[in-house]
Amino acid sequence: MRLAVLASGRGSNLQAILDAIATGALEARVVGVFSDKPTAPALQRVPEPLRWSRKAKDYADRGAFGTELADAVAASQPDWVVCAGYMRILGDAFVQRFRGRILNIHPSLLPKYRGLHTHARALAASDAEHGASVHFVIPELDAGAVIAYAPVPVLTDDTAESLAARVLQVEHPLLLAVLQMTAAGRIDEQSGRAIVDGQPLFTPLRLEFATT
Ligand code: GRF
Q1: Which of 59, 75, 79, 155 would you label with 188, given CA atoms 20 to 30 Å apart?
Q2: Which CATH number fits domain 2-206: 3.40.640.10, 3.40.50.170, 1.10.260.40, 3.90.1300.10?
Q3: Which atom in ligand 1 lies closest to the alpha carbon of residue 132?
Q4: Tens of pLDDT along 97-141?
Q5: Measuring from atom 13 of ligand 1, which residue has the nearest CA?
């Protein structure tokens, strides 16, 4: 399974993918890492020939950047596109080009807390649970069908940072679990629904992972 990975920052989710591939836990190949930030540490996690980045702000409009990004991703001939800490909205043109084959890991129990600052919002709402979700990417931000989620407890003394760190602990195994199912051909999308083993998911898969 050829994976194109989009990342804007640290790339810990990308590293989890690379580590799983190295140990044979994930039968896949990262065919490119694409970033809107040339300084993203994520880019340094793969050899130079696999890196692509452009300063999004150098482009007249979102569409121009999106088209160039889509062309670069298409050139890597991916089976799937994985947004792993990618912090830019993928425009309609990009999504349509790879529709049904783009996954995103988002640090909340979707549909709660689409967008940014999800941990602070969960704390502000005094949620007992928070977590991460893997979903299909559609033009609307963080709104595609959720395939699976991993909950974590919110502790009374949590800060946004401590909660984010706990969520990150489940993001990696969650993303890998979904990618393993994807590599096995078990995941699909049909008319906005996540399909697992040929059946539409009415509720996302709940995956539990230990956290410290
Ligand atoms: C993660 O919390 C991810 O869910 C969010 O960006 C954060 C950084 O991810 N989208 P990474 O360490 O760059 O993979």
Answers
A1: 75
A2: 3.40.50.170
A3: 4
A4: 999 999 999 999 999 999 999 999 999 999 999 999 999 999 999
A5: 11
